[in-house]
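P.,

For your records, the input lines for the assembly:
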Amino acid sequence: MTEPMSRERFDALAQAYGGIERWPAPERAAGWHLAAADPACARALAEAEALDLRLDAWTVPPPTPAMRQRLVAARRRGWIVRARLWWSAIGVGTVLAGAVAGLGAAVALGPERVGPGLDASVFESAGEEG
Amino acid sequence: MSEADPDAALLARMAQGEEGAVRQFVGAKLPRLLALASRLLRDRAEAEDVAQEVFVRAWRQAGRWRSGQARFDTWLHLVTLNLCRDRLRRRRGVVMADPPEQADTAPLADAALAAQAQARAVAAAVAALPERQREAIVLVHYQELGNIEAAAVLGVSVEALESLLARGRRALRQRFAQEEGADHD
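Structure tokens returned:
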């Protein structure tokens, strides 16, 4: 059951939003009821719809395919830059950690227990992208 | 906002580096954001710059977006609006008689010329509105944002948004009526 709407509320909505299909969804059903029952509301609605139609005359051209492609490419470049930074950070961290661990291990454990570190090829493949 | 963000799944896919999601996101958002910037700035080149900047910011935020606070689309509109406001402010510092309009030099049929003239008249009328009324009308009528989203972008209550819209639309109706009266004289 739709809650009845006051004439004042109907006018306020038509003046703010225009045609009923543009109103907030919960108010539309009551709006249609009142527009059908009250000729003054129907007139107010017709005026609002006429303004909507007038405003709709102002269209703007859609984006070009080239612009879409530029944006997708920019996102791809962003990923590559981030991947490079990420791998660079791992590389720097590994070198530093390796240097510290190597120094400690050489003193305490002997050379055969020192860890192998990361495969250098990942840095090359990250560096070759883009 | 309790309603689920319709862009949440897409944002998650983008954050995982899925290129198809990026294409889908650009396809869905670019026309809307470019239209918003075009209508606020009335300069295509500037609007494209703004749209590009919005996407750069969107790429940065997509992975960190926390769904449930606000819709990502609302945030995109807010960023676009703020970038346009900055440009309009800078433009006001430069002496400019009229906002630049792109003239189409291709020959047009009478109907197309009439439609173009009507579009220009509407654009000029909307541009002549006070800033907040203009923004409210562009967000609600042209961008078709819901009242809660539009109010959030403008930082006002829904009641205040409705007041801005009603005043803006009244001013437009009066202007169009005057123009029609002048045409008939």
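Two observations worth noting. Helices of chain B lie at 8-15, 19-41, 44-62, 72-93, 110-127, 131-142, 147-154, 158-184. The mean pLDDT of chain B is 89.

Regards
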